[in-house]
Amino acid sequence: MLDGKKRSNLKHGMSVAIVLKKDQDTGYLTDGIVRDILTKSPTHPHGIKVRLMSGEVGRVQEIY
């Protein structure tokens, strides 16, 4: 499984599971397709921030 903390692992159109800001306490994951990659740095300790096709924004926890 690819690491959601590395920007190089992500591409537009990939299926991912993200944690939304409101779900960070519970760890609830939201599935979706990557529309935009928002984090500019090559890595991030909490996961790369993306916008899904649905418009939701969160940090990548899993890549399918």
Please mark out the parts with pLDDT under 50 across 5 or more consecutive residues, or reply none: none
Please identify the structural class as seen in this structure.
mainly beta
Taking all residues together, what is the mean pLDDT? 97
Q: Which strand order do you get reading across the main beta sheet?
A: 1-2-3-4
CATH class: Mainly Beta
First and last CA, distance: 7 Å
The CATH topology corresponds to: SH3 type barrels
Number of strands: 4
Element order, helices and strands?
EEEE
Based on CA atoms alone, the radius of gyration comes out at: 10 Å
Main β sheet profile:
4 strands, antiparallel, barrel
- The gross shape turns out to be globular
How much helical structure, as a percent, in the residues? under 10%
CATH second-level architecture: Roll
Indicate how many domains the architecture comprises. Answer: 1
The amount of beta strand, in percent, is: 35-45%
Number of helices: 0
Verbal overview:
The model has no long low-confidence stretch (mean pLDDT 97). The radius of gyration is 10 Å and the shape is globular. The chain has strands spanning 15-20, 29-37, 49-52, 57-63. By secondary structure, it is mostly beta strands. The chain is 0% helix and 41% strand. A hairpin with an 8-residue loop joins strand 1 and strand 2.
At a glance:
This protein has 64 residues and is mainly beta.
